[in-house]
Description:
Radius of gyration: 21 Å
Shape: elongated
Order of helices and strands: HHHHHHHHH
Amino acid sequence: MPRFRETVRTLLRERLLDAAYEAVADRGFDKLRMAHLASAVGVSRQTLYAEFPSKEAVGEALFQRELERCLVGIQQGLDAHRDDLRAAVEASVGFTLTLAGRNPLIKAMLAGTGEDGLLSYLTTRSAAAFETATAMADAYVTEAWPAVDPVARELAVDAAVRLTASHIVQAGPSPEESARRIADTVVRIALSTGREQMPRQASGTRPPVLLQDGPVADVP
């Protein structure tokens, strides 16, 4: 019975978030009303507040759900290019920027105003999202590219996350061009420190490609 109740609660939570997503995408977070949200799902306000005690809690849950979905796509992009760090960065950044440009909720976030709106989760209240994205990227690079100097890895991961977030908030060139530029920057940072400490490969083997073109591509 406890498992059944938990399943019902999870389904209710998803229905509420789905309804909130549609409302925010259509009218913006500022115009989201808890009473309207409860009515849209067909539950009482008491039931709604038992799950989300405030409008801000709904906004935070919406953002976290979109962040988790985005991180899944990023991980897939990284895993698809484990033999090429530059391609992995470009694929994951390109996915993120393309998603940001098409996702109705993210568009509504960027159009919002005020410190209490969803935009704050990409600006003044972005610490948790940065930590989550940074931890995932750092774990990937540590596992897939152990030869990268730890200091350079930390700087490169930080640059990747911050540059991507910056391009989401204030779009520049196309997602493809932005991803290419960010990938170039990140890989060059990754190779900028402690490169002389990278272990040599066994005779007759070729190290994984970190950068497809340019003199820094080949590890001696």
